[in-house]
Amino acid sequence: MGSGISREIFSSGDVLINSIDFDPAGHVMWISDAAGGITHLDLRMDRSKATWYGLSGEKVGSVSVNPTRPHFLLTASNSRALRFIEFATESFGVC
């Protein structure tokens, strides 16, 4: 049985969070927001290490992690753009 205690693991301040997805191992969280970006958060690290990437001038409505290749992401924004993104520790490229 759980303890019934919760803790905050991420806060976007005044920016609305639109979607959240995890890598298959459950260690990395991707968050899309109404400010036109996505946030990368490794849950094994302090939340101050979260990194925000601006992708669009409009809301990014969803982010999805490829379950078999978690370094590939797909985002969809209100600009009607779909972005296929390859995320690696050394580089971040939008295709």
Describe this structure in words.
- This protein is mainly β and 95 residues long.
- It has one domain.
- 0% of the residues lie in helices and 45% in strands.
- The protein is built from no helices and eight strands.
- It has strands at residues 17-22, 28-33, 37-42, 51-54, 60-65, 72-77, 82-87, 92-94.
- The strands form two sheets. A four-stranded antiparallel β-sheet has the order 1-2-3-4, with no helix packed on it.
- A hairpin with a 4-residue loop joins strand 7 and strand 8 (92-94).
- The termini are far apart.
- The relative contact order is 0.18.
- The model has no long low-confidence stretch (mean pLDDT 88).
Low-confidence stretches: none
Mean pLDDT: 88
* Major sheet characteristics: 4 strands, antiparallel
Which strand order does the major sheet show? Answer: 1-2-3-4
| DSSP helix fraction | under 10%
> Which structural category do the helix and sheet elements fall into?
mainly beta
Determine Rg (CA atoms, Å).
14 Å
Work out the count of structural domains.
Answer: 1
Shape call: globular
Give the secondary structure arrangement, pairings included.
Layout: E1 17-22, E2 28-33, E3 37-42, E4 51-54, E5 60-65, E6 72-77, E7 82-87, E8 92-94
Antiparallel strand pairs: 1-2, 2-3, 3-4, 5-6, 6-7, 7-8
Q: What is this entry, summarized?
A:
With 95 residues, this protein is mainly β.
